[in-house]
Each structure stands twice: as structure tokens, then as C-alpha cells.
Amino acid sequence: MRTKFNCIAVPGRAPGESDVMIRLSRPADEPALRRLADLDSRPDLDRGAHLLAEKDGALIAALPLAGGDLVADPFQPSADIGLLLELRARQLRGHAPAIRSRRRLSIHIPILGH
Fold it and tell me: Residue 74: which residues within 8 A CB-CB, separation 6 or more?
């Protein structure tokens, strides 16, 4: 899936590393966001756009773009991913035209499995 999107790929993956993709949510992500919120015991999921973190194709964390609390899979290490989502959210809030462009943004960052 890397061929269609602007990505940062880090060559030379160490054993136990996985790619994490950060992207903006879209309406089709609503069921996956609900499942993630249920896993995190968060029945009140914030409305609006979210930044999503996917690891090996599975949604593991989400952060409301307008601000709010991280929703994360409790069975996956998410502290570093939460920091990445916060950083990206701050970048996007400072550059509103990038959000309106409706371009899919993704970043692949190797994360060591814990």
C-alpha cells in the first residue's frame, strides 16, 4: 500500500518491528473506531475527524483531530504511538489547508514490539 501515498520508510527493519501508518479517518472507518472505543472501554467516542494509527493493517489508536483523549487498543503498546498522533495533530491544526485538501496523509514509522 505504500506506492499510492506519501510515506517515510525506514530501511533495515529489526526483528519485532512493524510499520505504523498514521492517516486521517474517513466515514468508512466508523465501525473500526467503534470497536476500538469498545476495547478501550470508551463508550463516548468523540465525533468528527480522527487521526488513526494502524499497525499491520489493524487500527490500534485514534485521536480526535479537534482535540480530545487518545483511544487505543489496550492489548497493543501505544504510548509512543499516542505521542506521534499528538505531534501530527498539532501539525495539521497549524496547517488547515492540508486538512481541506482531502489528500490521504500517511507516515510509516517502525515501532519495536514490546
Answer: 39, 40
Summarised one tens digit per residue, pLDDT across range 25-63 is 999 999 999 999 999 998 888 888 999 999 988 999 999
Q: In sequence order, what are the residues at sequence separation of 6 or more whose Cβ sits closer than 8 angstroms to the Cβ of residue 19?
A: 55, 56, 108, 109, 110
The answer to whether the CB of 72 falls within 8 A of the CB of 82 is yes
Q: Report the DSSP pairing between strands 71-72 and 50-55.
A: unpaired
The DSSP annotation for the chain comes to -GGGS-----SSPPTTEEEEEEEE--GGGHHHHHHHHHHTT--SPPPS-EEEEEETTEEEEEEETTS---EE-TTS--HHHHHHHHHHHHHHHH-HHHHHTT-----EEEEE--
2-112 CATH: 3.40.630
Domain chopping of the chain, boundaries: 2-112
